[in-house]
């Protein structure tokens, strides 16, 4: 991660940030997709997670899915997931860099004095904007992951898109967007704030974590430091906002329950508050953390990869233009 100093003039352009963000998101998605599939399957299971339920543990879920539906099911919905990740990464990182550079140019001292707060707010605004633009890919991805592969409802990405619009209306592509925005703004804000706190205020001051080849007056942290910082950021941010993700997933499959009867009981709700109340009343408060295990592993892996790959691409671009 590049440590900002007032004398530093080397920055990537907004277009370069967009490219780096898109590549980082694509690489991360390809690696972490199975964890996302496991997380969604657990989130949509109404029965208690215990022996005898459809999915009772990570290893049991992987074995069950591979045996009943094939190993490729662990990459269900990968095309819309990639479209989601790339579009989200492009918009999020380019918007974040634009906001950050605007503050740096307009009032450098204000930026330095309020860096942690600005990292949080810039990350939250950038993620909210990216979420609204990329959300339909998220809904389609969830539908493809939610269906049973031995009893398919959709033929693929295009068929899911057209079928949903034809039978449920275009607004169905935005089901669950309210809890999603409630989740993503603080989630991304915490991610950026924590990651930059460690890379720009802690690790970059320790010689062990400093990259030897610095660019001008800019101090850079090593890959190891970026991975550790990203892991911490992922763990903290996911733990704080996880219940919103559970509610979002349950709202995204409303109107699709009849095709999921093989997975057990289904929930029928018309909005976020009703979904929260039904979940707590029927399954208990801890149900808001169903799928937390694979989700936490995914959050740690994804955040670490996302930020690290993004910063390595930025470092490569800056080195090329030395």
Structural description of this entry:
A two-stranded antiparallel sheet has the order 1-2. The protein has a domain of 68 residues. By secondary structure, the chain is an all-alpha fold. The chain contains ten helices and two strands; from the N terminus they run E-H-H-H-H-H-H-H-E-H-H-H. The N terminus is likely disordered. The longest helix has 32 residues. It comes from Pieris macdunnoughi. Its main location: membrane. It is found in: Membrane. Belongs to the mitochondrial carrier (TC 2.A.29) family.
Provide a brief overview of the structure.
This protein is mostly helical and 322 residues long.
The dominant shape is elongated
Helix count, per DSSP?
Answer: 10
Spatial order of the strands forming the largest sheet: 1-2
Helical content stands at 55-70%
Properties at a glance:
322 residues; MCP; transmembrane; mainly alpha; disordered N terminus; transport; repeat; MCP_transmembrane; 67% helix; two-stranded antiparallel sheet
Blueprint of the fold:
Blueprint: E1 2-3, H1 14-43, H2 58-69, H3 78-106, H4 108-113, H5 115-146, H6 157-168, H7 177-201, E2 219-220, H8 223-252, H9 272-283, H10 292-320
Antiparallel strand pairs: 1-2
